[in-house]
TrEMBL record:
The organism's place on the tree of life at top rank: Bacteria
Protein name: NADP-dependent succinic semialdehyde dehydrogenase
PROSITE patterns documented for this protein: ALDEHYDE_DEHYDR_CYS
Residue stretches spanning the membrane: none
InterPro entries attached to this UniProt entry: Ald_DH/histidinol_DH, Ald_DH_C, Ald_DH_CS_CYS, Ald_DH_N, Aldehyde_DH_dom, ALDH_GabD1-like, GABD/Sad-like
Record organism: Streptomyces thermospinosisporus
Keywords of the record: NADP, Oxidoreductase
Length: 461
């Protein structure tokens, strides 16, 4: 894929970039290694002042960077503004809390005495340059939720961003530089995916984090495993959205629409499979389908637009194939399901019912505004359907029955269980998945410690 900004609302190529050559990559690796030697010794106060400055600059740039994101990947501009604001919030959260999250820990005194030591301290030390391979769907947030904790921990970052969001990628490097971070603290590598393997094998790169597709995750994990390097992977998701009889149906259906079409439906944590108890299935399906039909699809730069184009022509083609396969196998289209005429990579909000296990859309992630409806006879079947997926990123459950709350929280195979609300990430809470959705955690104290050398310092009498 060329490194280029292609407006998904029109299909027009606006700007192209040359991939960095070997000499420039080498220069940047050398710079990262050299910068880390000194940056690792800076204090939390110094780092937090820099990160707060970056947050302030990002707030000032909110409108301009929102328009860049919308131009590059098609999200409604209102959502792009919210994404930029969320990034500034996360920067400030880590700037305020990193010192406490990574403070030295002293084990229980009795255990220290039992070990024969006078004192034992557990310290969190940075690893070094970390390679971040990031996707296009949240082109600012996905990077910042890695960069903010990594920089506060004393690491330095090397960003390989998706090839269709180069302007956002370059903006991030410039943002941290303008904030006062030394040049080598955060660098954008304008490279294709084929260059990732060699960089990851370089001894100067100490770890990697990837958010993206399952094949990309396998490739990075394989190389990192061979090189014995730490990785964090956040891959695909096909999150269940379970509705039980005690739920507030009007609210559950209203939130379900947003949960499915946020970011034009291109979100790993978007609800995709709607599993509804048979007692309320018809009522929910009617409300949900009506809500999906009512969405305004259009130019993502317009304020009233709720669903913009998909980010790429291939992405729309992949989504169409999943829908067409399901329809051929007997699924019923309750709304949408047909590509509109005209320019841009638009696809209408779509609801399918009558899904069975043999359909591709049951097994694969639908990355776009397409929802699948399932009827569950009881709680046990709802759990069974929810877990019948290779993914396990997050989940949503609507019920006011406390016994059901406990059961779903215990039995759903996912990195998150959101009750009577939709999945969302927040800097204070760990984020990540199980099964083929990846491993490791981002955000919170768990996320900042992922790329730390947890060091036991034992001191004898």
């Amino acid at each position: 894929m060329p490194i280029a900004t292609v407006n998904p609302a029109t299909g027009e190529t606006l700007k192209t970039y040359e991939a960095m050559g070997e000499e420039e990559i080498e220069r940047r690796l050398q710079l990262a290694e050299a910068t880390f030697r000194t940056y690792r010794t800076t204090s939390f106060d110094e780092r937090s002042a820099l990160l707060r400055r970056a947050a302030g600059l990002l707030d000032e740039d909110n409108e301009s960077i929102a328009q860049v994101m919308t131009t590059e990947m098609g999200k409604p501009v209102k959502q792009a503004r919210a994404e930029a604001a969320k990034c500034a919030k996360a920067m400030r959260w880590y700037a305020d809390r990193a010192a406490g999250l990574l403070a030295d820990e002293e084990p229980d005194a009795s255990d220290v005495r039992d070990s024969g030591a006078k004192r034992v301290v557990v310290r969190y030390r940075p690893l070094g340059p970390v390679l971040a391979v990031m996707p296009w769907n949240f082109p600012l947030w996905q990077v910042v939720r890695f960069a903010a904790p990594a920089l506060m921990a004393g690491n330095v970052g090397l960003l390989k961003h998706a090839s269709n969001v180069p302007q956002t990628a370059l903006y991030l490097e410039d943002l941290f530089h303008r904030a006062g971070f030394t040049e080598g603290c955060f660098q954008t590598l304008l490279i294709g995916s084929g260059a990732v393997d060699e960089i990851l094998r370089d001894d100067r790169v100490k770890a990697a984090t990837l958010t993206g597709s399952e094949p990309a995750g396998r490739a990075v994990a394989s190389t990192a495993g061979e090189m014995i390097k730490k990785t964090v992977l956040e891959l695909g998701g096909s999150d269940p959205y379970v509705v039980m009889p005690s739920a507030d149906l009007d609210r559950a259906a209203e939130v379900a629409v947003t949960a499915r079409v946020q970011n034009n439906g291109q979100s790993c944590i978007a609800a995709k499979r709607f599993i509804v108890h048979t007692d309320v299935y018809d009522a929910f399906a009617e409300r949900f389908t009506a809500g999906m039909k009512a969405l305004k699809v259009g130019d993502p730069m317009e304020e009233e637009t709720e669903v913009g184009p998909l980010a790429s022509e291939q992405g729309r083609r992949d989504l169409e194939e999943l829908v067409d396969d399901a329809v051929r196998a007997g699924a019923e289209v309750l709304c949408g399901g047909e590509r509109p005429e005209g320019p841009g990579w638009y696809y209408p909000p779509t609801v399918l019912s009558g899904i069975d296990r043999e359909m591709r859309i049951h097994r694969e992630e639908a990355f776009g505004p397409v929802a699948t409806l399932y009827r569950a006879a009881d709680l046990d079947e709802a759990v069974l359907i929810a877990n019948d997926t290779p993914f396990g990123l997050s989940s949503n459950v609507w019920t006011r029955d406390e016994a059901e709350v406990d059961r779903f929280a215990r039995d759903l195979e996912a990195g998150g269980v959101f009750l009577n609300g939709m999945t969302a990430s927040h800097p204070a809470f760990p984020f990540g998945g199980v099964k083929r959705s990846g491993y490791g955690r981002e955000l919170s104290g768990h996320g900042i410690r992922e790329f730390c050398n947890i060091t036991t310092v034992w001191q004898g009498a």
